Amino acid sequence: MNRRAFLHQSAFITAALTASKLKASDSRPLIGMDHFSVRATGWKAGQYIDHAASLKLDTCFISELHIFENFEETYLKTLKEQADKAGLKLYVGTGSVCPTSNTWKDTYGTPEEHLALTIRVAKALGSPVARCYLGNNKDRATDGGIQKHIEETLKVIQANKSRAEAEGIKIAIENHAGDMQSHELKALIEAAGKGYVGANIDPGNAVWAMEEPMAHLEALGALTVCSSVRDSMVWDTEEGAVVQWTAVGEGLVDFKAYAKRFAELAPGVPLQVETISGFARPMNYKNEEFWKPYPEYRDTAAFKAWVEMSKKGKAIPSFKAPDGPGKKDAEINYQKAELQRSTAWLQTNL
């Protein structure tokens, strides 16, 4: 082989390898962190951005407004510049915007004003979404059931339609703490309008709502514009089952398969880790009282798939920081470790 042919072939091989790496990179979702993973730190937004950068992540999701020191444009611009310098894309969220939910607080005015503020902050920080949610699973047991709260949430979202569209921001509604199952959240998004509303998907919260995460992803993936992900362990008990959230790669979710399908259904949307590990939640579904908030769900294929998942699990210990002067530090170190293992697993295995 002469020198010219050798150089030509070498250049071809280099180009092919580069293209292959780009293709592999493009097929992997961006990886980020939800600030709530290390909530015990009590940090403000700038410190969470620094932590995300230290983990070499792609995104940082500030999912509660009180994390910001203020909402002045100058301060928000400084945060965006900080994130840009670190190569991080910011995502922004808040809590409940449902006035009838047990989780609703009027800290930022009316629900409509609260969501409008979140959209403004999202716009200033370059976030493509303004995340919010309805409430939690306690709302299912109230008069009128979850549907009453869905209708109130829908009104708040629709009141911000023109604002979200004008700013180019998607309102991302999370399936939060067992409040809505996938079919309910899908119906809410479609009723509001898919043009400016999408899902903030959370496979851990799906398990609290007795949905198997891959099935949950199939239902909501095409509507997903944001995420807060963690793994889950579920195991059988005499009363039903127990759920405990875990670091990614340490539970029952096949995250390689999950991430692959996630990238297909929601291209460009990041997998943002929100570890909330260390405590167990009993799901005593063999008790008749358990089913009152879930009429007509007991005999569904979706619930049976969740039960089948529980049969594959095993009991794991919960975490409790030791009492004493070092308790706070122990909680912080535990949360940091859960987040770090999760993001490292995703970075290594995807």
Automatic annotation (TrEMBL):
Residues 67-276 form the Xylose isomerase-like TIM barrel domain. It holds the Pfam family AP_endonuc_2. It comes from the Bacteria. PANTHER family: HYDROXYPYRUVATE ISOMERASE (PTHR12110), INOSOSE DEHYDRATASE (PTHR12110:SF41). This is Xylose isomerase-like TIM barrel domain-containing protein. It comes from Prosthecobacter algae.
